[in-house]
C-alpha cells in the first residue's frame, strides 16, 4: 500500500521517430504532440475534465506556437480552462516536464498531469543575420522613395548569409564547442577507441531491430499532411543491415584529423513526440486505473560543459540518495545515446573510484552499469534523439520493459544535457 500522494505513471505513448529531413519532415511539432497526446487520452479513456495541467518539453520553439504545450493541449481536446506551459532544459526538456508534474502532484496542487515532449528538428529554421534584419528595419522606417533608394545602395550580399539555428543550438555558448566536440573530449579522457564506439553503435541497431515488436507497443502512427493518406508506423532509424565494416568506413565528423566520433556512432537529429499520464496514487485508484510505475525520485546536476556527456554520472547519485537506493538496485538502465563515446564514458566514470572522489565528492565509485541491463532495446544511436522529446521516451521505454520482467523492481532513466548537466529519474514497477 503506497502513499496517497505517490506519483504514478498510468500510461505513455509516443510517435515513431524519424531522422530529420525524412518521413516526418513536414509534420509540425505541435501536430506530432497532438498525435501522441490524443492517442494517450484515447488509450486511457481519460476524462479530460480531470486534467489539472499540461506540461510539454520543446527546444526548437516554433514562432507560430511559442507556448507549444498550450497549442497541443487545445488541439487534443483538453478543455480551455486547463492551463498548460512549455519547459526547456535542452536534451532533458521532456524529463523536466515529468519532474515538473511530479512536483505539482507531490505538493497536492494537482492530481492529474499530462506531460511529455515534442520536437521537429526538421523545421528548426534558418534565420537572417543581424545585418539583414537591421537593413529591413531601416527600410521600413524610410518614409520617402529617395530614402528607400539610398538604403538599397547599402545592401550587401553578406546580409543574405543565414544563421543555422540548429547548429547554434548544438554549440555550447560558454565553451564555444559543439556537442560532438564534447564527446571527443570524453573519448580522449577515457581512451575510448573508435572500434569500441562502433561496436557499441552496432549493438544499438541490433537491439533496436530485435525489439521491433516491443517498441511498436509504445507507438501510435502518424498520418502525413497534406492529404493524410500516407502513414509512418515505425521508427525509421534502426538498421537490421548495419555492419561493423560499414561503420568503420565512416570518417570522423567533428575532429577530422584525429577524431573518433562519426555520424555512425552518434545519434541522428530526429523528429518525434512522446506523452505520459501522471496521477497521484489516490486519484488513480479512485478512477480505477492500474499504474505501470511510480516515480521514486529524480535529480538534475551540473558538470563541465566541455564534457557535458558525463552529466548522468553527476545527477544519478543524487537521485539514488533521494530514493534511498544504490546503483546495484537498478534492474534496467536507459541512458540516452547522444554518442557512443559519451555512454561508454559514463560507464567508465560510474565505476571509477577516482572520478567519484575527484569530481563527485564521494568516497567510492557510484557503481557499475553493465551492458546486460543498459539500453536493452537499443537507444538513440538507432532510434534517434528528438531533443525536446527524449526524456519522456526514455522513461516510457524503461517502464514498458520493466513491466515485461518479473525480476526487475527499480529502473533508472538518465541523460546528458547540452550546457553541462545531467538528468536522472528512478522509477519503481507497480505490482
General description of the model:
It is built from 16 helices and 14 strands. It has helices spanning 29-43, 68-75, 93-107, 130-141, 145-152, 165-169, 179-189, 194-210, 212-216, 244-248, 281-286, 311-323, 340-350, 353-360, 380-383, 390-404; strands spanning 7-14, 18-19, 53-57, 83-87, 112-120, 126-127, 163-164, 222-223, 231-232, 270-280, 293-302, 330-335, 410-417, 421-429. The termini are close together. The strands form three sheets. Strands 1, 2, 3, 4, 5, 10, 11, 12, 13 and 14 form a ten-stranded mixed beta sheet that branches. Strands 6-7 form a two-stranded antiparallel sheet. A two-stranded antiparallel sheet has the order 8-9. A hairpin with a 7-residue loop joins strand 8 (222-223) and strand 9. It is α+β, with helices and mostly antiparallel strands. It has a domain at 7-124 and 268-426: Thiolase/Chalcone synthase (Peroxisomal Thiolase, Chain A, domain 1, 3-Layer(aba) Sandwich), CATH 3.40.47.10.
Give me the strand/helix succession. Answer: EEHEHEHEEHHEHHHHEEHEHEHEHHHHEE
Radius of gyration, whole Å: 22 Å
Task: Please report which band the strand proportion falls in: under 5%, 5-15%, 15-25%, 25-35%, 35-45% or over 45%.
Answer: 15-25%
Shape annotation: globular
